[in-house]
UniProtKB/TrEMBL annotation:
<feature type="transmembrane region" description="Helical">
    <location>
        <begin position="13"/>
        <end position="30"/>
    </location>
</feature>
<feature type="transmembrane region" description="Helical">
    <location>
        <begin position="147"/>
        <end position="164"/>
    </location>
</feature>
<dbReference type="GO" id="GO:0080120">
    <property type="term" value="P:CAAX-box protein maturation"/>
</dbReference>
<feature type="transmembrane region" description="Helical">
    <location>
        <begin position="69"/>
        <end position="95"/>
    </location>
</feature>
<dbReference type="GO" id="GO:0008237">
    <property type="term" value="F:metallopeptidase activity"/>
</dbReference>
<dbReference type="InterPro" id="IPR003675">
    <property type="entry name" value="Rce1/LyrA-like_dom"/>
</dbReference>
<feature type="transmembrane region" description="Helical">
    <location>
        <begin position="223"/>
        <end position="243"/>
    </location>
</feature>
<keyword id="KW-0482">Metalloprotease</keyword>
<feature type="transmembrane region" description="Helical">
    <location>
        <begin position="176"/>
        <end position="203"/>
    </location>
</feature>
<dbReference type="Pfam" id="PF02517">
    <property type="entry name" value="Rce1-like"/>
</dbReference>
<feature type="domain" description="CAAX prenyl protease 2/Lysostaphin resistance protein A-like">
    <location>
        <begin position="114"/>
        <end position="205"/>
    </location>
</feature>
<keyword id="KW-0645">Protease</keyword>
<feature type="transmembrane region" description="Helical">
    <location>
        <begin position="39"/>
        <end position="63"/>
    </location>
</feature>
<protein>
    <submittedName>
        <fullName>CPBP family intramembrane metalloprotease</fullName>
    </submittedName>
</protein>
<keyword id="KW-0378">Hydrolase</keyword>
<feature type="transmembrane region" description="Helical">
    <location>
        <begin position="107"/>
        <end position="127"/>
    </location>
</feature>
<dbReference type="GO" id="GO:0006508">
    <property type="term" value="P:proteolysis"/>
</dbReference>
Length: 260
């Protein structure tokens, strides 16, 4: 790794950060713009390129290194989100917010393919957005590291990143902001983006599994966004309670100075 003469971590130039941010944003929005969800598979590759551009190995620029405990945090996030989604559906169906019918899914012999696609697809979509709206934000604004203001800034950008859903109005914005609060708090609290990926992936995975094994319909379109917002505020509280504060690992230091 390259350090400056006084031992400080070399910071990527503003020009490189801006270039990487623009390219990441373009490739993230591309699937929505052209109507081809498969193009989301390009985002992790672009993120790897962007990490290298900023002077890091792999995806470490986005706080996605294999630090001690990362797998536990990933799993914890998935379990927490899946439990929150299940609880929201159970209570929401009783409150006439959702109608839920469990069909049992496809025959066992035909289950492997759809299940694998659901697991993989939701993971790629989740980690792609986490890199753009959380990892990139913290890398671009290092002064937010360790400050609660990061959670607010990241959540606001998370809302704006959903440009194709902004026309749905304030209830959608509130829902997205609350979702962003929970996911950004996981990175803020743990020091690794894997914790945020776990929460985000768990929620998306639970949605995918609900569609695979049943039929979930919104019975009250006015209340549904606030129901999701409330579930994520509960997840936010639990995240702040169970995820221990942790400084960023030494492995997150750039491997070379950008431009070297």
């Amino acid at each position: 790794m390259h350090l400056t003469s006084n031992g400080a971590i070399p910071r990527p130039t503003a020009a490189r950060l801006l270039l990487v941010a623009v390219v990441l944003f373009f490739f993230y929005q591309l699937p929505h713009g052209v109507g081809n969800d498969n193009l989301i598979l390009m985002v992790p590759l672009v993120a790897w390129w962007g990490s290298r551009m900023l002077g890091f190995h792999g995806l470490r620029a986005w706080y996605l290194d294999a630090r001690q405990g990362w797998l536990r945090l990933l799993g914890l996030g998935v379990v927490l989100s899946c439990a929150a989604k299940a609880l929201a559906l159970v209570i929401g169906s009783g409150a006439d917010v959702y109608t839920v019918a469990w069909t049992g899914g496809p025959p066992l012999a035909a289950l492997a393919g759809p299940l694998a696609l659901t697991v993989f697809g939701t993971f790629v979509a989740s980690i792609s957005e986490d890199i753009l709206t959380r990892g990139l934000v913290l890398r671009a604004f290092p002064r937010l590291d360790g400050r609660w203001l990061f959670i607010v800034v990241s959540s606001a950008l998370y809302v704006l990143n959903h440009i194709y859903r902004l026309q749905k109005g304030p209830s959608e914005w509130i829902m997205l902001f609350c979702m962003g609060l929970a996911y950004a708090a996981a990175l803020y609290r743990s020091g690794t983006l894997w914790a945020a990926v776990g929460l985000h992936w768990g929620w998306n995975l639970a949605n995918g599994l609900a569609d695979l094994f049943g039929q979930v319909d919104v019975a009250n379109a006015t209340a549904a966004p606030y129901w999701t917002a409330g579930a994520h505020l509960v997840m936010l509280a639990v995240t702040l309670l169970v995820m221990r504060p942790n400084s960023l690992p030494a492995a997150a230091v750039p491997s070379r100075a950008p431009g070297a």
